[in-house]
Structure formats: C-alpha cells, structure tokens
From TrEMBL:
UniProt-annotated location(s): Cell membrane
Naturally occurring in which organism (per UniProt): Stutzerimonas chloritidismutans
Primary site of residence: membrane
Family in the record: Belongs to the CPA3 antiporters (TC 2.A.63) subunit E family.
Matches recorded under Pfam families: MNHE
Keywords: Cell membrane, Membrane, Transmembrane, Transmembrane helix
Name of the protein in its database record: Na+/H+ antiporter subunit E
Length: 163
C-alpha cells in the first residue's frame, strides 16, 4: 500500500469514527460510551474493510440544504397540527412511485431516509430507479418537494462526483 493510500485509509477511518460517534451521541444523548466505543470502532473497521469512504459534504451547499430542509420540516409539522385540529380535513392517501434522477448511492440512501421527515411523505423502498413513497394527500405537490430535496442532496453530497 502506498504512503498516500495509507494516509487516505487512516483519514477515512477517522472520518468513520467521527461520524459513528456523532450518531451514537445523538441517539443515546451522550450516554453509554462503554458499549458505544467498541461499537463505533467495530462499525468503522467494518466500513473500512468493505472499502467504503465517508461522505465529504460540500460546505458551500450546507446552508441552502439546511434552510430548505428545516423549512419543509416546519411545514410538515404545521400540516400535521392543522390535521389534528381539523380531523375532517380531506386526505387522499396513496402509494406512488418517484423516479430517482441521481445515480449517487449516497444521495439515494439519504433521500430515502429523509423523505419521511417531509410533509405527508414516507419512503418504503428503493428498487432500481424508483422509490416507493406513501403520501397523505396525493393532491399536494409531494413530487416537486422530493425532487427539490434530491437536487439539494446531490449538491451537498455528490458535487462533481468527488473521489
């Protein structure tokens, strides 16, 4: 292994450890490090063994992504509150297919996870270039919102398909 390859692997390992430690801290509210540290190291080692590289998001795209996503989450919370206060508000639930435009597996993975936090949507599976989505009301512009999220994730996670 070349010296540059060894440095890259070391940096990738640190990236995975940092990411998994952050996830552990968020989910456990900073507790349980006796179990967390070995789990984090095992997950990081497995990621390296599988040849995965940690994500390197574009810091320039991060503010726009956060603004868009937090705005949509607030809109979703408002919609749920209105539906709770007005239970007769019409719904037209449906299972629909969304055609994915990104070829990045990272973008597809994160998109499928984040769609459930958008107003009235939930992704159930990705198969080929299609993502199955459940919507509370198919008359709402859910597809435009999901497409905007996918574009923003593409800018955030795969700008120019960096190595």
């Amino acid at each position: 292994m070349s010296e540059l390859g060894g440095q890259r692997r070391w940096l990738d390992g640190l990236g995975w450890v940092a990411l998994y430690a952050l996830i552990w801290a968020l989910f456990t509210e900073g507790a349980g490090w006796t179990l967390g540290v070995p789990s984090i190291l095992l997950a990081a080692g497995l990621s390296l063994w599988l040849g995965l590289r940690p994500w390197h998001p574009s810091l320039a795209a991060l503010p726009g992504f956060l603004g868009f996503f937090l705005g949509k989450m607030a809109a979703g919370a408002w919609d749920v509150a209105l539906r709770a206060l007005h239970p007769k508000r019409p719904l037209q639930p449906a299972w629909l297919d969304y055609t994915l435009t990104s070829s990045s597996s990272q973008v597809r993975l994160v998109l499928s996870a984040l769609v459930g936090l958008l107003p009235g949507t939930l992704a159930s599976q990705v198969e080929g270039d299609r993502m199955r989505v459940h919507v509370l009301d198919e008359r709402q512009p859910w597809e435009t919102t999901v497409h905007s999220l996918e574009r923003r994730l593409e800018q955030l996670l795969a700008p120019g398909d960096r190595p």
